[in-house]
Design goal:
- This protein is of the alpha+beta class.
- The protein has two domains: about 5-65, no CATH class; about 105-178, no CATH class.
- Helices cover about 45% and strands about 10% of the residues.
- The chain has helices at about 5-15, 20-30, 30-40, 50-60, 65-75, 110-115, 145-160, 160-165, and strands spanning about 90, 95-100, 105, 125-130, 140-145.
- The strands form two sheets. It has a three-stranded antiparallel beta sheet. The chain has a two-stranded antiparallel sheet with strand order 4-5.
- Helix 2 packs across helix 3.
- The longest helix has 13 residues, at about 145-160.
Length: about 180
């Protein structure tokens, strides 16, 4: 069997006494990932989540109601670390830029079109990006369409690549309005 260093013995003993890898990190100053590697090298596997919960309760760490209460009081609105002010931008994960408004997150392209049209877009209306780049929200790249027209437009793209070359080229229909 492999010879265990003094620090490793301490880590193994702490873990076997119920301490978590994060607690061991705080005690020893050794990163928790390294703690897991040391444990693995010494034939000790990671605990399941239920074992972690049981150990936390045994050590008097299982009651999180006070923490939840503090978090709910202190993490509301601007105090929440994930809070974003109105006007903040983010990517929606599909390439579109979203902007935070009073009513929630809205696609930037829709906001631009609404500003030009001086009205809200209906649920049946959508904005097509002419060059296909979803975060390119220049006015000359936006085309207002009905959703069913937009779906048909992209269905042609997907079904027949040759039709894509012969269909008419779109130019922004929002520029003429502004």
């Amino acid at each position: 069997m492999k010879k265990i260093k003094t620090d490793e013995k301490k880590i193994v003993r702490l873990y076997q006494n119920g301490e978590s890898a994060l607690t061991i990190q705080k005690i020893t100053g050794i990163n928790y990932k390294t703690v897991y590697r040391i444990l693995e090298n010494n034939g000790i596997g990671r605990r399941t989540s239920s074992e972690q919960t049981i150990n936390a309760r045994k050590l008097g760490r299982g009651d999180y109601s006070k923490q939840k209460e503090l978090a709910s009081k202190n993490w509301q609105g601007r105090n929440n670390p994930r809070w974003k002010k109105i006007g903040s931008k983010r990517d929606n994960g599909h390439g579109y830029i979203l902007i935070k408004t009073k009513s929630g997150w809205v696609e930037e392209s829709r906001l631009i079109a609404e500003k030009i049209l001086k009205r809200k877009l209906t649920k049946d209306e959508t904005i097509h990006h002419i060059n296909g780049i979803k975060n390119d929200n220049r006015l000359k790249n936006l085309f207002l369409m009905l959703r069913k027209e937009h779906k048909a437009w992209h269905t042609l793209d997907n079904l027949n690549k040759e039709l894509k070359d012969i269909r008419p080229e779109l130019k922004s229909n929002l520029i003429t309005i502004s």
